[in-house]
Specification:
Length: about 1000
């Protein structure tokens, strides 16, 4: 091998780029303060990205940082998954072996998918969260590694990056939150055309304020002059500077090549063709050296020395002399780890490769492939299959390429590089018809496929079929986030199956996939597709596909159309799964069965079943199933009013699934935890749990539920604008095709709350009518009772508002009718029923102290502090309005106000404070004592309103316009408008309707009953 060779064609002087270098060095300083830095360096080929990076890395090393560089590899259409990360992490492993091992501790098997030196790559598990888990583990490992030292990670040539590398880089740029880490990526800007796969990533990163992007411009004439002086070690003649600047147009690499061409004796020097210019130094090399350079050009970004020795078929001495000549001419460079060679600049490699004849290119690639087949040790094991596949493909040998491509797809899958797996499978399908039948007949599903369960055939002896590849590609596309592509693949597969006479089990499998994809894409609820699959498997012997279809049918029914009929479907799913010995499928079916039992009223049996499944799945290591059990048990416990138990179990579930990096499962569990924390009055914790759900969740549904939880909190705290924003976010997450009652009904309830807060009683009635028309299926009482209660409270608060009498009777009757159909299987819902009855009476002006006493008694034992505070508010109001016991009313107000203050419920706190002022009652323990008449405090003055603003508000509350107010008060309409604006600001509301609603809700112009 060769040592370092002096190269004078590279300027020893760093020219220009002072501002860009300063930005990079500043990022280094910021990272030292535990603030991770992310930077992108772009520029055309040859403009000086590498030189700037090298200067920065030198400065980083001088400051004690640990630096690692990884380059993206241009080895074919698919690329090597995670290639630059693997290379950079390999460097870190060499420099910091103990520290990296500690940072990866406990997750070595997963992280081995990116850094194989950490251990064996496991075969699974595979699901839509697999890639996200791997990315999360990688981010946390880097953060731990950079805790006590500054680490600089540079990824070069991002324009060649494989899809998995681009996705991981985007994830790191978004999610790194701590650590002394600087992450830099370079790319060739002139290669990023409109359809280039890097373009969407760059657009996404531009929107992140945490990412700095540097675009390198070409040198000006003065900078070219300084570069020439550095290369020539003397001041150049001005005429030469002019010629070089004109021809190079300020491109630093072209300047070097023009100088090299000039010094090599080519007096024309400045050739017209760029490719000819780049080939000048190659063509003056000895023949053996030219031959080696052409071989290296086809080998990929880097070619290992043992592989090059085998492919060149030169003696070792002859090869070394040829390499020495190529390195001396500054065409090739030895790699940093000393085990291979690469071109000094990719432009030269591209020019040499383009200069090869078609037959010559195929022959060189064949030699590479034959060498790797003869000796597996020539390159790293994790690279062998993908490079072998690309070499055989470039050699135009379909018979050899097909099995190699399929083997590479299996490797990509094991590394959770599903996008690369998909590309390889699509290449295999393109090759399929070009491969002789006898070669295809030797291929077996057992060797290349995993996702499609055996259906009456032996995967070891049955030949591989194209539809098997379509099944693998469908799941790879889904796991890789390319659902549209997956949907198209299922359509193609079903057409092929139909043309071939049909295979009902295979067709049912693809229809099941389509059901899942259509639901995830928001194109529908997926029922047509799953019903088609169910029809296809009818009458067939039990099989894995049959069991999976039945599980999905039961699960769909539970979520979209709850009812007793689903219980029988779930029982059949359990039975079929047991018959074929598919315990994981059986456990999933039992979760559905347990939930349906609870919804149908058998809570004890259903909850016991769910706990049994949870414990069994945890013992067997079926973490995905155990996670689903935690999701459903916590939800069911909340439905039973057992919120404290739900929180405790959710905490256990989070610990279980977060350790396995099941991000969407964790999001669901945290979302359920947020709901129960809200119920328990632990609102700050609930908000954090909901925000955490948004951070970790990847799917639309858990994120939509988290936004809904934040909307509930905002409503409770009187933050109407925030509640409306979170409601809009929830709608956006769920989309227009999500028909699940557990998602739709809470959104109706939130819309009612926002409309009521803004004084839009007509919209309250419209939303309520839509919800009632939508229906409250079996088990949905937990969402229906709060909705009906909110609507009834809105009607009661609006009583007396102008324009609200018409339609009230019909609205109240609709609420009563809807309530009669709802179950009350737990004390929580019996209390809601009592509360609803009282609110309906209040809306009619017929509520009594006895009514609200019954509500307070029902709610008191439930550990629902916000609900209890509201009930006590109404009871105190009823007592004071009827001339009842002021001592009791005072105690109720003090207790409710303390709760509202602790929760941060501004609206409830203000209502209680105004009621207390009007009744001249104390609100805080310091003010308590014998209740006696106190100096009268005007509640309107307490709001900061002037006498004139009181008069204006009274008229606003009756629905008067500014012109009408002006006429009544003998002021101008403009003055009336100013008063209204001041009132809105002082009340903290956004509209006249909201101000009117507040005035009526607080009874600002309605006297209490006379005091005894």
């Amino acid at each position: 091998m060769l040592g370092s060779v002096e190269t004078r064609s590279v300027s020893p002087v760093f020219v220009g780029r002072a501002d860009e270098l300063a930005v990079l060095v500043d990022a280094l300083a910021r990272a030292a303060d535990q603030e991770p830095q992310a930077l992108l360096i772009g520029g055309e080929a040859g403009v000086g990205k590498t030189r700037l990076t090298e200067e920065f890395l030198g400065e980083a090393a001088r400051r004690g940082a640990v630096v690692a560089v990884g380059g993206c590899m241009e080895i074919g259409a698919e690329g090597l998954p995670f290639a630059p990360f693997s290379t950079a992490l390999r460097t870190l492993l060499r420099l910091l072996p103990g520290e990296l091992a500690a940072a990866a501790a406990g997750q070595e098997d997963e992280l081995a998918r990116i850094l194989p030196e950490l251990g064996e790559t496991p075969r699974g598990p595979h699901d839509e969260e697999s890639t996200a888990r791997l990315f999360e583990l990688t981010a946390r490992m880097l953060e731990r590694l950079a805790t006590d030292r500054t680490v600089v990670l540079v990824l070069e040539d991002l324009h060649w990056a494989d899809t998995s590398t681009r996705h991981l880089l985007a994830y790191l740029f978004r999610s790194l939150g701590r650590g002394r880490l600087v992450l830099v990526a370079t790319y060739r800007a002139d290669d990023v055309h409109r359809r280039h796969p890097l373009r969407p990533l760059l657009a996404e990163l531009d929107r992140l304020r945490t990412v700095q992007r540097l675009e390198l411009a070409r040198f000006n004439r003065g900078e070219v002059r300084r570069q020439l002086a550095g290369i020539l070690a003397s001041q150049p003649e001005e005429a030469f500077v002019d010629s070089v600047f004109d021809r190079s147009d300020g491109n630093a690499f072209f300047v070097e090549e023009l100088v090299a061409s000039h010094e090599s004796g080519c007096r024309t020097g400045l050739t017209e063709s760029l490719r000819d210019l780049l080939l000048v130094r190659v063509e003056v090399l000895p023949d053996a050296a030219q031959r080696v350079v052409r071989i290296v050009a086809e080998g990929g970004s880097t070619v290992e020395y043992p592989l090059l020795l085998a492919v060149s078929r030169l003696g070792e001495d002859e090869l070394i002399e040829a390499l020495r000549a190529a390195v001396g001419a500054n065409i090739l460079l030895a790699t940093a780890d000393g085990d291979g060679y690469r071109f000094r600049h990719s432009l030269v490699r591209e020019a040499v490769s383009d200069d090869l004849l078609p037959g010559e290119r195929a022959r060189v690639n064949r030699r590479y492939a034959e060498a790797l087949e003869a000796d597996e040790t020539l390159i790293r094991a994790e690279e062998r299959l993908i490079r072998l596949a690309n070499y055989w493909y470039a050699a135009n040998d379909p018979a050899k390429a097909l099995p190699a491509v399929l083997a590479a797809s299996v490797t990509a899958r094991r590394r959770h590089a599903y996008s690369e797996q998909l590309s390889l499978l699509e290449r295999a399908m393109d090759l399929w018809e070009s491969v002789p039948d006898e070669v295809r007949g030797e291929l077996r599903p057992a060797d290349y496929t995993e996702v499609y369960p055996p259906c009456g055939c032996d995967p070891v002896t049955t030949p591989l079929q194209r539809v098997d590849l379509l099944a693998e590609a469908t799941v790879a596309a889904r796991y890789g986030g390319e659902r549209e592509r997956a949907l198209k693949l299922t359509k193609l597969a079903l057409r092929i199956l139909d043309e071939d006479g049909g295979d009902p089990l295979r067709a049912a499998w693809f229809w099941t996939e389509r059901s899942r994809l259509i639901a995830n894409l928001g194109r529908g609820d997926g029922w047509h597709e799953i019903a088609t699959a169910q029809e296809l498997v009818k009458g067939l012997p039990p099989s894995q596909v049959h069991a999976d279809v039945l599980v999905r049918v039961a699960g769909w029914g539970m979520l979209h159309n709850p009812g007793p009929g689903n219980l029988a479907a779930a029982e059949r799913a359990v039975e079929y799964a047991r018959m074929i010995g598919a315990e994981e499928t059986e456990l999933n079916a039992r979760i559905t069965y347990g939930c349906l039992l609870m919804d149908s009223g058998d809570g004890t049996t259903g909850l016991a079943e769910l706990h049994t499944v949870k414990d069994r799945a945890t013992r067997l290591g079926h973490t995905v199933v155990a996670g689903r059990a935690h999701i459903n048990i916590t939800s069911q416990l909340e439905s039973m009013g057992r919120s404290r138990e739900a929180v405790e179990l959710a905490e256990q579930g989070v610990e279980l699934v977060s350790g396995a990096r099941l991000l969407d499962t964790e999001a669901w569990v945290r979302g359920n935890m947020a709901e129960s924390l809200y119920s328990l009055g632990r609102w700050d914790e609930a908000a954090e749990a909901a925000r955490h759900t948004l951070r970790v969740g990847r799917g639309a549904a858990p994120r939509g539920s988290a936004s809904a939880r934040l909307a509930y909190l905002a409503l409770g705290r009187g933050e109407l604008a925030e509640a409306a924003a979170q409601l809009a976010a929830a709608h956006a997450h769920f989309g227009t095709h999500d028909s699940q009652p557990q998602h739709r009904i809470p959104l109706f309830r939130l819309a009612v709350g926002v409309a009521e807060g803004e004084g839009r009683i007509a919209d309250v009635r419209a939303e309520t009518a839509q919800a009632i028309a939508y229906g409250f299926p079996l088990g949905q009482h937990r969402y229906a009772w709060p909705l009906l209660l909110a609507s009834a409270s809105a009607e009661a608060d609006a009583r007396g508002l102008p324009g609200t009498d018409e339609g009230r009777a019909a609205a109240l009757e609709a609420l009563r009718t809807a309530a009669r159909s709802l179950a009350t299987p737990a004390p929580l819902w019996s209390a809601h029923c009592e509360y609803l009855r009282a609110e309906l009476l209040r809306a009619e002006g017929r509520d009594t102290v006895a009514d609200w006493t019954a509500v307070e008694v029902a709610v008191s034992p439930l550990e629902r502090p916000y609900l209890l505070a509201r009930a006590r508010h109404r009871l105190a109001e009823a007592l004071l309005g009827s001339g009842g016991d002021r001592e009791t009313a005072a105690a109720l107000l003090v207790d409710a106000h303390a709760t509202a203050d602790r929760l941060g419920s501004r609206r409830l706190r203000e209502e209680l404070a105004l009621l207390a002022r009007r009744a001249r009652l104390p609100l805080t323990p310091e003010e308590t004592g014998p209740v006696a008449p106190a100096p009268d405090t005007d509640p309107i003055e307490a709001l900061g309103l002037t006498s004139r603003e009181r008069d204006v508000l009274r008229l606003v509350a009756t629905g008067s316009t500014n012109r009408r107010i002006a006429e009544e008060l003998f002021i101008s309409p403009k003055t009336a408008s100013v008063h209204v604006s001041n009132i809105l600001a002082k009340l903290g509301v956004a509209s006249r309707g909201e101000a009117a609603a507040l005035a009526h809700r607080l009874r600002l112009f309605t006297p209490l009953a006379p005091q005894p």
